[in-house]
Amino acid sequence: MDYQSEAPKSCSWFLRIFQPALPATVMLTDPAAIAVKYRRWQTRVLFFSIIGYATFYLVRKNYSVALPIIGKDLGIDKSGLGLILTLHGMVYGISKFLNGFLADRANACVFMATALIASALLNIWFGFSSTLMIFLIIWMLNGWFQGMGFPPCARLMTNWFPPKQLATKFSIWNSSHNIGSIGIVLLGGFLVDGTFFGQRFFTPNWRLCFFVPAAIALVVAIIVWLMMPDTPPSVGLPEVEGTHVETAEQGAGEDFNAFVRRQVFGNPYIWLLSFANFSVYTLRYAVFDWGTTIMMEAKHIQIVDSKWMIAGFEVFGFIGAMFGGWFSDRFLGGRTVRACVVYMALAGVSLWLFWKIPTQSKLLTTSLLCAIGFFVYGPQCLLAIACANLATKRAAATAIGLTSIFGYASTWLSGWGMGTLVQHYGWDAAFRGLMVVAVVGTLLFIAAWPAKAHGYKN
After folding, report:
1. Using alpha carbons only, what angle is made at residue 37 by residues 33 and 42, rounded to the nearest 5 degrees?
2. Do residues 286 and 348 touch, judged by C-beta distance below 8 A?
3. C-alpha gyration radius of the chain
4. What pTM, to 2 d.p., does this model score?
């Protein structure tokens, strides 16, 4: 594939800095040397893309950790706090979709680093602000730059790893979600509480929850820019095994827009998975964004303990995603949708038990929360893998971007909707709504059961 030719040709606003890296002047031909160099670069791509994307969480989900403290400190009610989540999520989903078109034809590491720098600067602005309207503006802008974080990762993964390994490798990469979430839950909890294992270190201040992650993000952005490659040809390697046939047999000279219309928008299974993603992300963010508040108000657990419990939700989410990727490659021939059916059904069961079992036991509450994480993060990861493989590496970011519009449209329910529902009808009403969402998601995955493992001809 001519990567440079995939760059937009008529968009003067598309800065030259984002154009794909040119193929190296000298290409390796020795199979042994190629194998060694591929392993080294694949390891580097996986490591730095995980660290880079995890850092996006530090400057996105810090708001969720500080949410209850901001509400009390500034007198903002749950509807207002939820509205910030909702508008941020909507902008994020749209950005992820639109930037998918660009990222499929852009230099991945530059694209990612630029977005992370912009997000860090917006967090600093947020930390100096105190009104709901300014919060809304800043966090919507942050949503746009946050939406630029995932598409380059999708481009990297599908360009550097073959389809037969993608479920396993992508599930490893998916740990970035959990690493970032755990990191900000623990770091943010420490910053807003000021204590660690009962020892007070400083006077708590929710604004630190924005300043400190922003500083970390600026450092990581520079590292990503310097350490990550773009495509295999840009470092003198041939295209990854199992994907080169795509452009030869699926229209070598086909226009990118025509390819996207056929391979993404013309694929009914990608549409089914997009609708299913609405359900997956409703459950995921209902638990993560409101988790600390649920623990404090519905379970009567203090923030110093709840932050560790939410961290457990993320840890087991990582395990669930990893297991699902391995299981799909090992036993399902890469058909990750089929694993999603079981995962989503059990996510609903776990959520019902978390809601209905009356207990004051922190251990049991944590165990049920971990079970929800295990079964929610499975389809969150596997759904993206399915779409990336069905769209092929040429349009992977675009396909995942499409699912993201639906995923982050769910913030109307998990953000503003849930906040308003709880404020007027209590937590039981919110949990009833989440159970309906789990059932609908399971049915949509069942409808997508016949989907192929990938969209390549070979």
Report:
1. 150
2. no
3. 21
4. 0.78
